[in-house]
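Hey, can you fold this one?
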Amino acid sequence: MGTDTKFKKGQSGNPGGQRAIPKEVKDFLAGKTMEAARKLVLLLNSKDGNLRLKAANSILDRVYGKPDQAHTFNGDLGGKIVVKWQS
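Sure. Predicted structure:
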């Protein structure tokens, strides 16, 4: 049973890649980074524990980078495959 696809083998579904964010938008948002950082710090005091955790993770990810992630898959041949990558 074959898989139907719109694209030929080796042809990208998105040959142009992701569109660039306009410079005006980047400049505008860059001016809001301190405001956004202050909001994350304020959210650390939220009554919602899930919101506090998300704020804390966002702050830590931006200061120290996202932690490495390891994923383990059980292969069809009975062996485990461990995939690790760094952000």
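The two ends are 37 Å apart (CA to CA). Let me know if you want another pass with a different chain boundary.
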